[in-house]
Amino acid sequence: MIDFLYQILLKISAASSIIGAVLSLYVLIELKRLNKRYLLKARIPEILNQLEFITADISKALKSFDAEKRTIETNIYRFEAAIENLKDKLHGQNKSAAVKLAKNIKKHRNSLDKDGAWELYNEFQSMINTVKHLQSDMKWGP
Asked: Quick one: CA dihedral 12, 14, 17, 18, positive or negative?
């Protein structure tokens, strides 16, 4: 009888250990997700301001492209750094858009002409709108 109880307790303790490990893994994943969401919510206003400031500089410089080409290139690198920082905090469709933009920046930055600069500027504006919508959504969502 004692041997039978001992076997049952062993099985219960093994099952409890497995359930505990699964629950711990679930809690770890949820904490990581919440941390990522909180980090995005806390940093999005600062990143958005930075993106808007950079794009405003590019807009001014595009009026005299040849004289301001170096300024535009510098701002493109700054925008790229901000996007790299932002894309680590995003997920889903927004992250895909940021990754696509980062690739497009790399494609244009070494051989920048006026048309390429305008194309990047338009994509920057699109990304800013995406981030603004995300910020608005975060105010209402869980």
From this structure: negative
Tokens of 101: 């933009």
Q: Which residues contact 106 (CB under 8 A, 6 or more apart)?
A: 80
Element (H, E) at 3: helix 2-62
pLDDT in tens, 118-134: 999 999 999 999 999 88
What is the mean pLDDT of the segment spanning 75-85? 93
Task: Tell if the pTM clears 0.85, that is, is over it.
Answer: no
CA angle (106 as vertex; 87, 101 as ends), nearest 5? 40
69-108 burial: b if 16+ Cβ within 10 Å, else e? bebbbebbebbbebbeebbebbeeebeebbeebbeebeeb
Cα distances (Å, whole numbers) of residue 99 to 50, 71, 90, 114: 18, 24, 10, 23
Both ends of the chain: CA-CA distance in Å? 53
CB of 100 within 8 A of CB of 82?
no
